[in-house]
Automatic annotation (TrEMBL):
Family label: Belongs to the peptidase S9A family.
Source taxon at top rank: Eukaryota
Organism whose genome encodes this protein: Pardalotus punctatus (spotted pardalote)
Protein name: Prolyl endopeptidase
InterPro entries: AB_hydrolase_fold (IPR029058), Pept_S9A_N (IPR023302), Peptidase_S9_cat (IPR001375), Peptidase_S9A (IPR002470), Serine_Peptidase_S9A (IPR051543)
Task performed by this protein: Serine peptidase whose precise substrate specificity remains unclear. Does not cleave peptides after a arginine or lysine residue. Regulates trans-Golgi network morphology and sorting by regulating the membrane binding of the AP-1 complex. May play a role in the regulation of synaptic vesicle exocytosis.
One Pfam family this sequence matches: Peptidase_S9
This protein's encoding gene: Prepl
Keywords, alphabetical: Hydrolase, Protease, Serine protease
E.C. designation(s): 3.4.21.-
Length: 741
């Protein structure tokens, strides 16, 4: 029985293409008792995704099908000569780079050993910092090391029961991405994801004295329980989510398609309101939203439209006491940016679900008349204030805000009609809400962190109206780390924020090495979550700088608009201004400066490498997007169509083609002095074509050698190194894999 399920799951490889009707899931007992260690991961639920834009989605008539059906037979295609030649070129380039890496990597053996030891030691602080729990009544659920535990609120965790284990199912390389417990706690839905795939597999476990696997659903992105035995879920294919299904677990089990999105620019996911009255089907592009409601009391009825999509209007729905609460850009000023992230829409490095807004409004409308003509203002943010996330409770609403680089917590009381604002610690750069399944909870838990501060847990008590810092083990170096916020003047006089970290005990900062970080795309904030390697660098005397350039989301929708499409060069000007100012202030100097970027951040980093190579000595890129023009010319790639809103459409607009060509890293390589470059790429990356990175490295290396051969003797030749990882996917790796990198 166990072997049958294990074989099925392994055959899936987290992808529908291996799913076979000849090997149905078997029932498997998962019950055991062990003493769990400290938990460090829980409910990586709201994953990242993104969106697309136009004709409305449609509600489809009921259509029943079996989860066991639908095995695809690959079609036989004739490969023409050009495809064969291209494939051969790719293999030759890959082989050449792998041989080059094998020759170079032993050089760093001793350094690698030293750094690895330090990082493993620092990683323990993250493990010991505690982790959130999901509480349903007297039951507490938590996850650790691929196991899901259940304990009683009044019992110690040493008596916790193991409800599920990835290792028992033969998935030691998989991680639990999302957990959803049914309202009556009879079922648990779990998504498992491998490092080597973008797609996840949903496993339904029937709970009880002896938990058993009830069903396995491949290629699932998001899922929510609409009722005790009714699950809604979205499927993912080629990085797109456009279909919503409903499946039941009653005596008459069946599955049906309830919604499909016709516009390729839109991405669909589902969300359950905090009070569990409604399940929302959210269809989003980068600029427009449309939401459908499923009444959880009548989960078999057709979804109802809240407000038809209107170009430029983004909105998100919550519910409280027969009123829909709507966070939206509707009306003036319209400064709200919705981002759904888990690396599922854009070329990004994000692990959590977040919503970013600026100058947005909280409005409300009756459920029965939800059109925007009935929306009434509840609360509007101050100017230049960005709403990063919010959470609805029975009598209060929590808002996490960012203003002038500082974080705030605003508590809106629906009882006293008051607003309390609390400034959070100045060192904090990121916050993450913990899961609060019960909307009647009297306490809101969240974690604060920074690149050099491990997550620290806080709680806000609605009864006491105060903020409580949870006791955690301190990391000694934190007390020696100084945080500074600066503003650099860009080419057009725009002030660009920079966050700087350095050791207070460091002297002669102009001689210290500097690591500059940049992203600047998709309206997404530069990732400033805790990383062990950042803390290690501070300990060793490095300066860390985070440049919040245009194109990112640090200052809202207008900040993103000023750095995308025909404004992309503004982000490059911002980056140049930031690095120049840091040097002018005596924070390091060019020969001690390195630039780091990941994914779409590679566009600005690679562009600066071409235009101002004298500003930096080294550049480190992870899964970088460096061939914008050729990628955006290939509409058959999964993300090209929806990303036209970010980069433009060079196929139909000659001006756009010329503009992209003016900054595209690959297109602007030329014989000149270049910094050293280290790139990590992934063979299985579905977002960034490996061929583009291989060609970029070859062209860059040739340009550097050509320059050296025509210059005076003794000219410095940069190291240009590419490490192609056979495992791992786009900016999404396990701790062990990340440690190796």
């Amino acid at each position: 029985c166990c072997a049958g399920l294990r074989n099925l799951l392994q055959g899936l490889t987290f992808s529908a293409k291996y799913y076979s009707k000849h090997n149905p899931p078997q029932t498997m007992c998962l019950y055991s008792k062990i003493k769990p260690k400290k938990c460090h991961i829980l409910d990586r639920s709201e994953s990242t995704c993104t969106h697309r834009t136009a004709p409305p989605g449609s509600i489809l008539p009921c259509r029943f099908f079996s989860c066991k059906e639908g095995t695809k037979v690959p079609s036989k295609r004739k490969q023409n000569t050009s495809l064969v030649t291209s494939d051969l070129l790719h293999k030759n380039l890959l082989k050449s780079e792998q041989e080059n890496w094998n020759d170079i990597s032993p050089t760093y053996k001793d350094m690698t050993k030293r750094i690895r030891g330090k990082l493993e030691k620092l990683h323990m602080y993250t493990l010991n910092s505690g982790s959130p729990r999901m509480r349903y009544g007297e039951n507490v659920y938590f996850e650790e090391d691929g196991c899901i535990f259940l304990s009683k609120a009044d019992d110690g965790e040493e008596n916790a029961d193991v409800l599920f284990s990835t290792e028992d199912l033969g998935f030691s390389d998989a991680f639990i991405q999302r957990i959803r417990i049914s309202p009556d706690q009879r079922y648990m839905a779990i998504s498992l994801k491998s490092e080597n795939s973008e797609e996840a597999t949903c496993i339904i476990v029937k709970l009880g004295n002896f938990p058993v696997v009830e069903r396995v659903i491949p290629s699932v992105f998001s899922f929510e329980w609409a009722a005790n035995d009714v699950l809604y879920y979205t499927t993912q294919k080629n990085l797109k989510c456009q279909n919503v299904f409903m499946t039941t677990f009653t005596c008459q089990k069946h599955t049906k398609l309830v919604y499909t999105e016709q516009d390729a620019r839109f991405f669909v996911d589902i969300y359950c309101t905090k009070d569990r009255h409604f399940l929302t089907i959210n269809s989003n592009s980068k600029t427009t939203s449309e939401v459908w409601l499923v009444d959880c009391r009548h989960p078999f009825e057709s979804p109802a439209l809240v407000q038809a999509r209107t170009t430029g209007v983004i909105y998100h729905i919550e519910h409280r006491k027969d009123q829909l609460y709507i966070l939206t850009t509707y009306g003036e000023p319209a400064e709200y940016k919705a981002i759904l992230t888990d690396n599922y829409i854009h070329r990004i490095n994000l692990d959590t679900y977040c919503r970013s807004y600026r100058n947005s409004k909280l409005m409300k409308a009756p459920v029965a008349s939800s059109g925007k003509e009935n929306w009434q203002l509840v609360y509007a943010l101050e100017k230049k204030t960005k709403l990063v996330d919010f959470e609805m409770f029975s009598d209060d609403c929590i808002m996490f805000l960012k203003k002038a680089g500082h974080l705030y917590l605003n508590v809106i009381s629906f009882v006293s009609y008051s607003v309390q604002s609390i400034k959070l610690p100045t060192w904090a750069c990121e916050f993450e809400l913990e899961s609060h399944p019960e909307h009647t909870s009297s306490t809101c838990y969240f974690q604060l962190s920074s690149p050099v501060h491990p997550p620290k847990r806080f709680a806000y008590s609605f009864k006491e109206n105060n903020l409580i810092e949870q006791a955690v083990q301190e990391v000694p170096i934190i007390t020696n780390c100084h945080t500074t916020r600066l503003l650099a003047k860009s080419k057009d006089e725009t002030l660009v924020p920079i966050t700087v970290f350095h050791n207070k005990n460091s002297k002669e900062l102009h001689r210290r090495p500097l690591l500059v970080h940049v992203y600047g795309a998709y309206g997404i904030d530069l990732n400033m979550s805790f990383k062990e390697e950042k803390l290690m660098l501070i300990e060793e005397g490095w300066i860390l700088a985070y440049c919040h350039v245009r194109g990112g989301g640090e200052q809202g929708l207008s900040w993103h608009r000023d750095g995308c499409q025909h404004n992309k060069l503004k982000g490059l000007h911002d980056l140049r201004a930031c690095i120049t100012m840091l040097h002018e202030l005596g924070l390091s100097q060019p020969k001690y400066t390195a630039l780091a970027a990941a994914s779409a951040g590679g566009v600005l980093a690679g562009a600066l490498c071409n235009t101002d190579p004298e500003l930096i000595r080294a550049m480190v890129l992870q899964a970088p997007f460096v061939d914008v023009l050729n990628t955006m010319m290939k509409t058959h790639l999964p993300l090209t169509i929806e990303e036209q809103e970010e980069w433009g459409n060079p196929l139909e607009d000659k001006k756009c083609m010329k503009y992209i060509k003016s900054y595209c890293p690959y297109q602007n390589i030329k014989p000149q002095h270049y910094p050293s470059v280290f790139i990590t790429a992934y063979e299985n990356d579905e977002r960034i074509p490996l061929t583009g990175i291989l060609q970029y490295v070859q062209k860059l290396r040739k340009a550097a050698l050509d320059h050296a051969s025509t210059s005076e003797k003794g000219n410095w030749i940069p190291n240009i190194i590419l490490d192609v990882q056979a495992n791992g996917s786009h900016c999404d790796s396990s701790w062990e894999h990340s440690l190796n990198e």
